[in-house]
Design goal:
This protein is of the alpha+beta class. It contains 15 helices and 14 strands. The longest helix is centred in the middle third of the chain and has 32 residues. It is globular and about 55 Å long. The protein binds protoporphyrin IX containing FE (HEM).
Length: 408
């Protein structure tokens, strides 16, 4: 992949800057330069006249996300501000503070408990086995389409009770929403239309589940109460959109990076295939550390609060970069090295750095990645990529659009 020439401000990771046009090695080098020049916390002015605090050290990312009193989630979860009506449709619990956040999170938590995940394992193994048969027939295939974007969406769609016929369109809508910064995929207008269409869909789905309840999260949410009141259409719709998008795109990205990284390190792939049960847990943490499928989350300071060598003013935006924290050499020795034996790979912050918003689906994602990788490596020890990943241009997710693969 070619890198795009760097602009006058090479280390500005805002959506419009050339930062996100570069290849992964350049991005990592740029984040390293940011961390070095700032000690992990610095203010980046933007053309609009405002700006944001960019947090790139592991310690400061933890500090921010574990202090929800000083750093609120209610003003938005992404670097770029969203109009309030858009935030209402896309935010849900990720844009709430406690105690409200906990009240709503609790409504769905049981569906993602360790027990629920264990019960889903055989079913995910069956889905993986079906994918193996598809690959056997095709031999050359796009990993993202055939595996990454396929299985996690089936799982979350089943959990939500989304009818099979509606799934392809909903998957397209999620791509259009998350591809907002990638001209090949979407643009702002298209992305906004996609959010509105998804939102209308969820409202209809909710209505039908109220009349004909099933054994799914959607039916449960339609009948749930918070403080004695049913969820409003907006609360319900945004919750379903969050679960559908978060449950699909992130795991698809994690799986695709796993395939890329293991193909780039065939010795580690062979070792993993030989001793999958012994090595898988740590290998998956290392994939998540290295790739960080979610690039950032944003908080907003509620009070003047010290962070690093600065005092963040009340009202300032604070962006925590998981990719940068996961490559902080203060914690991870030689951080760009991919090493499934890395002793502290588990200290990664790919699912968040603790605090009330820590990823609700972390257990599900880990299980899905483990089952899919285990099934694929057992069936095709020689499965490998044939080209580098085609990266999504995004300031928010570390997406892969395509990853050609073959079985020799
Ligand atoms: C490799 C896969 C995944 C990664 C890397 C990932 C990453 C993250 C991150 C970084 C956060 C924000 C943490 C914070 O702000 O402190 C988050 C939140 C969340 N994730 Fe995931 N996630 C993944 C898979 C999933 C899955 C499978 C689901 C299932 C629905 C899910 C549902 C959620 C939800 C609902 C939240 C918001 C939690 C809250 O605000 O309380 N995620 N995730």
């Amino acid at each position: 992949m070619e890198s795009v020439p760097r602009a006058e401000s090479p280390c500005d990771p805002s959506a419009l800057s050339p930062f996100w046009d570069s290849d992964i090695d350049t991005r990592l080098a740029d984040f390293a330069a940011m961390r070095e020049r700032s000690g992990g916390v610095e203010f980046i002015p933007q053309r609009s006249g405002t700006g944001f605090w960019s947090v790139t050290s592991h310690a400061a990312v933890r500090e921010v996300t574990r202090d929800p009193t000083s750093f609120t989630s209610t003003r938005g979860f992404s670097l770029d501000d969203m109009p309030p009506e858009l935030l209402e449709m896309l935010g849900s619990i990720i844009a709430m503070d406690d105690p409200k956040h906990q009240q709503y999170r609790r409504l769905v938590q049981v569906a993602f408990s360790p027990r629920a995940i264990r019960q889903m394992t055989d079913y995910v193994a069956d889905l993986s086995a079906a994918i193996v048969e598809t690959i056997r027939e095709r031999r050359d295939f796009d990993f993202v389409e055939t595996v990454g974007a396929n299985l996690p969406f089936q799982v979350i769609a089943d959990l939500l009770g989304i009818p099979t016929a509606d799934r392809p369109r909903l998957r397209e809508l999620i791509d259009l929403i998350l591809g907002v910064n990638d001209g090949e995929v979407s643009d702002i207008e298209t992305s906004l239309r996609a959010v509105a269409e998804f939102f209308e869909y969820t409202v209809d789905l909710g209505r039908s589940r109220r009349q004909n309840p099933g054994d799914d999260i959607t039916s449960h949410l339609m009948h749930a109460e918070v403080d004695g009141k049913r969820l409003t259409a907006a609360e319900f719709g945004s919750f379903v959109i969050l679960l559908a998008a978060a449950g699909n795109d992130t795991t698809r990205t994690g799986l695709s990076w796993a395939m890329h990284l293991l193909s780039r390190h065939p010795d580690q792939k062979a070792a993993l295939a030989d001793d999958f049960d012994g090595l898988a847990a740590n290998a998956i943490e290392e994939v998540l550390r290295w790739s960080s499928p979610v690039l950032h989350m944003r908080r907003t300071a509620t009070v003047d609060v010290p962070l690093g060598n600065h005092v963040i003013a009340a009202g300032d935006k604070v962006v925590v970069w998981y990719l940068a924290a996961n490559h902080d050499p203060g914690l991870f020795v030689d951080p760009t090295r991919f090493d499934i034996y890395r002793e502290n790979a588990r200290d990664n912050v790919a699912f968040g750095a603790g605090g009330p918003h820590f990823c609700l689906g972390a257990g599900l994602a880990r299980m899905e990645i483990r089952v899919v990788l285990g099934t694929l490596l057992a069936a095709f020890p020689n499965l490998h990529t044939t080209a580098p990943p085609d990266l999504l241009r995004s300031v928010f997710v570390h997406g892969i659009k395509a990853l050609p693969c073959t079985i020799d």
